[in-house]
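Hi P.,

Sorry for the delay on this. The queue was packed all week, but I finally got your sequence through. Input first:
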Amino acid sequence: MDTTYDVIILGAGAAGLSAGIYTSRARLNTLILNEGAVGGQMVLTHEIANYPGVEITNGYALANIMKKQAKDFGCKIKSNIKISNYDFSGDLKTINLNDGRSFQAKSVILTPGGRPRNLNIPGEDQFKGTGISYCATCDGDFFTDKEIVVVGGGNSALEEAVSLTRYATKVTIVHQFDQFQAFKHAIIEAQENPKINFIMESELKVFSGNGKLSAVQIEHLPTGKVAEMKTDGAFIFIGYLPNTEDLHGVVDLNNRGEIVVDTDMKTNVPGVFAAGDCIVKKYRQVTTAVADGTIAALSVADYLRSKN
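Then the structure:
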């Protein structure tokens, strides 16, 4: 079994699989190491209707097509592994696994992805994809002529709530404080939208339904009073967490834990690149992750050519 590669890609989401397609097609000996299920956040998306060139699909199907493409070009993929530590200090980068195996490569692309911050309340895991969403652009159209709840009080929550009024008949913003943590223009735009209502100083406590989300329980924090509200969907915008907890001290991260890269997806460590939802960026979509992975792969090819 090979243990030394031209490039090792850490993560098999949209960015990692795209990078694997490009590096393996460029005849680079490529290994993808993936701790979870192949596809990353993609597989949580029930329907994808805005992927260019594909009228409609789901995340699981798209991930499997990408996986097949990468493997057909010769990319090796090892899933359900657990990484114990990294050593990127030398010309050969080393990744050690918990089971004692070790792999080395001349270059590395970090694509661990990220995850929306959860409320961690009863029913949230149950109704993800069947009423609960973390992406207005991805799923807004599915709630046309429906009544929905938006959770959060920052710029993302208010801006996405406004965008969701293009589809929903009523949007109720639930926020735990008595004022919003957003720019003034975002607050005014939301307040002036006739489709948006506000429930302040309140938190969601429970999601409920039969097969799909149909109601939420909301606690008014100053009084402790809990009321149930019927709803067709809930969008949660309370922040985003990159999966970079084990990369502190390995590559440069910003104060949100995102990997700092340049326009070529280079990190501060020579030979180490990063792409996808783990990097410093504004927009997180399947298409942007694919683009990041493509750029990282092409940059790796240039880097390895320069070393020869």
